[in-house]
Amino acid sequence: MPEIHPFKRLRTWTLRAAADQGQIIRVSCNLCRITHNYLPDDLEKLSGNLQLDRLLTKFKCDRCGKRDYLQMKLHFPHGSEYGSLKIRRLKDIRTVTVPVWLDDVLR
Q1: Cα–Cα distance for residue pair 24/5, rounded to 1 Å
Q2: Could you tell me which of 97, 26, 87, 92 has the C-alpha nearest to residue 59?
Q3: Structural contact between residues 53 and 7, judged by C-beta atoms closer than 8 angstroms
Q4: How confident is the model at residue 12 (pLDDT cuts 50, 70, 90)?
Q5: Distance from C-alpha of 23 to C-alpha of 13, rounded to nearest angstrom
Q6: What sign results for the dihedral spanned by CA atoms 47, 51, 85, 64?
């Protein structure tokens, strides 16, 4: 049987469904070899209930700043991982106000 591409499986899966199943979203950068684990509930607060194939476009690597080398996997934690698996949690959402200037003529 042919193997199903991972993004075809993620097309119908949403953040809410992953949170209901107790899954963790694991995002890795293949350029700088760093991996972070996220709870779907925290990501849902930021971007809403997105489909998982569209979620990766919202990320960029903290270390190298690139988006091209990111890879996402769903992970179901084992019993031995509770208490030792590092999770990146959402602490606060800050809104930055940036002024936009327009050069105009005095009238």
Answers
A1: 20
A2: 26
A3: yes
A4: confident
A5: 11
A6: negative
For 24, phi then psi, to 5°, come to -120, 140
Give tens-digit pLDDT for 26-85.
999 999 999 999 999 999 998 888 888 888 888 888 889 898 999 998 988 888 888 888
pTM value is 0.76
Q: Which amino acid is at 90?
A: L
**Cα angle 43-96-38, degrees, rounded to a multiple of 5:** 15
Tokens at residue 7, please?
């993004």
What CA–CA distance (Å, rounded) separates 23 from 39?
8
- What stretches of the chain adopt beta strand conformation (E)? 24-29, 34-38, 70-75
Q: Where are the domains of the chain?
A: 6-81
Indicate the length of the chain as a whole number: 107
